[in-house]
From TrEMBL:
<dbReference type="GO" id="GO:0003841">
    <property type="term" value="F:1-acylglycerol-3-phosphate O-acyltransferase activity"/>
</dbReference>
<dbReference type="InterPro" id="IPR002123">
    <property type="entry name" value="Plipid/glycerol_acylTrfase"/>
</dbReference>
<keyword id="KW-0012">Acyltransferase</keyword>
<dbReference type="GO" id="GO:0006654">
    <property type="term" value="P:phosphatidic acid biosynthetic process"/>
</dbReference>
<dbReference type="Pfam" id="PF01553">
    <property type="entry name" value="Acyltransferase"/>
</dbReference>
<keyword id="KW-0808">Transferase</keyword>
<feature type="domain" description="Phospholipid/glycerol acyltransferase">
    <location>
        <begin position="71"/>
        <end position="187"/>
    </location>
</feature>
<protein>
    <submittedName>
        <fullName>Acyltransferase</fullName>
    </submittedName>
</protein>
Amino acid sequence: MGRKLLLKKRERKKLVVDENYEFLPKNIFFRFFSAVLRVLAVGFMYLYNTVVFGMKVEGRENLKGLPSKGFVSVCNHVHGLDCTMVACALGVTSLYYPSRKGNLDLPWRKRLIHILGAVPIPPSSVKAFQNFQKAMATVLREGKVVHIFPEGYLKPYHPELREFKRGAFKLAYDNRVPVVPLVISYRQSTGWRKLTNRKPLLTISILKPLLPDPDLQEKEEIKRLLNASYHEMAERLESRPA
């Protein structure tokens, strides 16, 4: 009996993402607390990622001249904290990243990472997914960043780029915003880090933005954005063997 009650309690705590879910909370206290916490988190994680993982950022000059509207960033998914590395590399505290609903089911995680910009992807409801798309369009219209891992799932320290899904590139095309590819590559561990961490050190490179052409057919242009991002990222990753 006790086990059944515990399981039911856990089920009640799971996040419900339906048509009534508020993807972008309007509560002024939530928004203020979120803004403050994001600034603190990016500052702390920049230091933490640099010291612990040897994070090095390249290519910030490629962000110059971007339109005033927001953009969609993409990156290979190879580390549990790579989303924080993307935020640190881009120097933004207004980054939103769609996430599997299961990542937000735990009560403590649900609150924390939602405050820091995680937005659950609706698992089934068509209406909820439409609301999710409208929320992401609002984020981009406000000049903020939506980050998507087009490989879909985490594979720690994977040496090669994996197959991309098209969602990030469709989002960029639909909202007429650039795609900014980033890629995490590896360096051999050196110095004192050899004593504490056998994993390679991480370099995150910002590549040149890709602009969607609204005059081209949607299907072909999404495919072009996907293939161009994949090619540039794979080329950079292959040129940086650990």
